[in-house]
Amino acid sequence: MKKEPILSAFFLVGLFTILNCSGESPKTAEVLEEDGKIFIIDDTGKKWDVTHAKEKYGMKPEEFQFGIGPFAIKPFIEPQMLTEKDQGYPALRDDFEVIGFTYNGESRAYPLDIMMEREVSNEIFGDAHLAVTY
Description:
This protein is mostly beta strands. It has 2 helices and 8 strands; from the N terminus they run βββαβββαββ. The strands form 3 sheets. It has a 3-stranded antiparallel beta sheet, with helices on one face. A 3-stranded mixed beta sheet has the order 4-7-8, with no helix packed on it. Strands 5-6 form a two-stranded antiparallel ribbon.
């Protein structure tokens, strides 16, 4: 059975977020209050201001979980996209899942197995600079 690409008009929005795939119990954040603001501290020591999340949405900072910190996973920067004429373009009989993305009439497909490695592809669609995330 051939799988069709999933096309979306969303940009700068993650299609999926995987928070904890290790099977280990998630760690909870260290909470710090300074000058009327509430912060959590991640594994790298970076402070994240979560005051708005608590005050506006009632989230509990002591229950926040976090991963490995910013810049831990290198994004794709303008990856080379193949067309039907290019060597390496998949045959019609190939069967794999993709994340499809359309912006201003331009469509691209990102193989899911590759996006699982990097999670973000920084793209240029005409004059627009966008991030496609998984």
